[in-house]
Design brief:
By secondary structure, the protein is mainly alpha-helical. It has helices at residues 2-51, 87-105, 122-133, 146-149, and strands at 60-64, 69-73, 79-80, 111-114, 140-143.
């Protein structure tokens, strides 16, 4: 009986240590997430303000740690829905998110996007080219129609393009 009691006390100490370690790791994980998010948030806001023509399109973002959701906020800190954005504004928000991920992590993953200029009006397109594309030190891959960015000289991005490929339709 004495041995069982000693064993139970030892097991309880081990269990307590495991739970305390788990709690400490969760707290540390939250701390790291909040610090990383702070940098990400700063780059996102800076980027969206550089690209968007509506300066209050998204005023802030917050992260719901429990559900792992990023919420976009208006100037009154009310959550915005993706339905609140036009197709072009959604594209600006998406570019800003991808750019913020790359800059805040310093990993510089290639950004791949389909029809990047198709949804953007002239002003958004200009802002994107001047504030992102021309300042980027990492790779963008645009999947577009020949009509969309066929005239790279007109868009003044020809010197930023290393390669282009044309995929022709084949019924087979």
């Amino acid at each position: 009986l004495e041995k069982k009691i000693k064993l139970n006390k030892t097991e309880k100490k081990k269990t307590d240590l495991i739970h305390n370690t788990k709690d400490l790791l969760m707290e540390f994980s939250t701390y790291l997430s909040e610090n990383r998010f702070s940098s990400f948030r700063e780059y996102f806001i800076q980027t969206i303000q550089n690209i968007a023509t509506k300066k209050d399109l998204v005023s802030d973002i917050r992260i719901d740690q429990e559900n792992r959701i990023i919420q976009f906020l208006d100037k009154s800190n009310n959550p915005l829905s993706t339905k609140d954005f036009s197709a072009g504004e959604s594209q600006v928000v998406a570019f800003s998110l991808m750019w913020a991920v790359n800059v805040s992590t310093k990993k510089y993953f290639p950004i791949v996007t389909d029809s990047p200029f198709n949804r953007l009006d002239k002003d958004h397109r200009k802002n994107f080219i001047e504030n992102i594309l021309k300042k980027s030190n990492h790779q963008f891959i645009f999947l577009s129609t020949n009509e969309e960015i066929g005239n790279t000289k007109k868009l003044e991005i020809d010197k930023y393009i290393s390669d282009t490929y044309l995929i022709e339709y084949d019924k087979k």
